[in-house]
Structures are given as structure tokens and as C-alpha cells.
Amino acid sequence: MTTQPPTSTNTVWHHATVTRARREAQNGHRGAIIWFTGLSGAGKSTLAHAVEEELHQRGCRTYVLDGDNVRHGLCGDLGFSTQDRIENIRRIGEVAKLFMEAGVIVLTAFISPFRAERERVRSMVEHGDFIEVFCNSPIEVCESRDVKGIYKKARAGQIVDFTGISSPYEAPENPELKVNTGVEDLETCVQQVIDEMLQRSIIARR
């Protein structure tokens, strides 16, 4: 499924004098990629922004990369075919890595339906830098939250390649964290993510 993008030629990586370690020391926390994945309506964006709010209150440097927002600019030229979904996640992975190298905790909220593409992003960074959070919610609950009416359109055949209906979603087999966003309240889910980050020493206890 994964295809390798073309590689630029005649380029040399420039090593900065301000290192990631120095940025992290200034920030008072590690840089990391917190990758929220799940069906449309599973609560990825809601949870990512709520976690960011909690981290911001703690003085952390953060940024949320949200699926819809990114498609307004960086990935505005992509559709929802399998190949476009793969390219979408490749671009997001590269951007997330840059944020992380800047010492930022970057939280990504994308369906990212294909297991291979999520693992590809994981392979871009060192062990422990990529935290996969599976927002686990039954499709019935996701459909009940469908304020945009996209599930209804997908059921009617008006949207093709829709994840969970006409296109597969490959749930994580061994995520760092599985959050039952279909049944648990937002505050509980946020605390689970914060606890995971504390346990992995991405952030320090107050």
C-alpha cells in the first residue's frame, strides 16, 4: 500500500547549532508526537484540543494538527482516494516531526485509517517520540454525533471511500494508549492521556 515519494536531489542536511535538546531544556518538557486515530466522530479533535488546553495550563509548548484544518492548506490539493490518504498522512508525519524537533508537543487528530501509514510515521522518529492514542468508539456512536451529516451521505452512496462504510479502518494493534471515547467522559479521557505522558516522562509532574 505504501509508496515511496520522489526524493529531492542535490540537497544536504544542515545541522543547526540550536539543538532539539536545548529547545526541550528551554521548554521544560520533551518534544513528542501524540497521534490520535479513530473513526470520524470518535472524538479525536475534541480530545486533542482538550489535552492541549490542559498542557497549555501547565506551561507546555503545544500545537494541534487537525484533519479538516490541514486540508484547508497543506493538503488542500488531496482528495480521499487511498493514495491521497497515504500522501496526506506522509505530509502530516513530516510536519509533526518538525514540530517535535522544535521541542513542541504536537497533537495530531486524523482518522489515519491505514496501519502501515501510522507505522511509517512512527518509523520517522526515535523510539518513545510517537505516542499512538486510539480513540475507540463504536461506529453507531460516531454516527449519532454526525453533525455534518457525512455518515448519512456515505450510507446513501453520495460519498465514496468513506472510512468505516466504504473504506476500511485498520484499528491499532498495540497502541500506547486506547481511550474509550465512545463511553467515557472527556475529562476522564484527558486525564488518561496526561497520565500516559507523565509515565513516559514527556512532561513532569507539577
Q: Overview of this structure, please?
A:
The chain has 206 residues and is α/β, with parallel strands linked by helices. The longest helix has 20 residues. It is built from eight helices and five strands. Strands 2-3-1-4-5 form a five-stranded parallel β-sheet, sandwiched between helices. The model has no long low-confidence stretch (mean pLDDT 91). Helix 4 packs parallel to helix 5. The protein is globular and about 55 Å long. It has one domain: P-loop containing nucleotide triphosphate hydrolases (Rossmann fold, 3-Layer(aba) Sandwich), CATH 3.40.50.300.
Strand order of the largest sheet: 2-3-1-4-5
CATH topology: Rossmann fold
For the terminal residues, how far apart are their CA atoms?
Answer: 44 Å
CATH homologous group name: P-loop containing nucleotide triphosphate hydrolases
| Second CATH tier, the architecture | 3-Layer(aba) Sandwich
Shape: globular
CATH class: Alpha Beta
Strand proportion, as a percent range, falls in 5-15%
Helix count, per DSSP?
8
Order of helices and strands: HEHEHHEHEHHEH
Estimate the helix proportion, in percent.
25-40%
Mean pLDDT: 91
When the domains are counted, the total is 1
DSSP E strands, number: 5
Low-pLDDT runs: none
Quickly give the structural class.
alpha/beta
Radius of gyration: 17 Å
Largest sheet: 5 strands, parallel
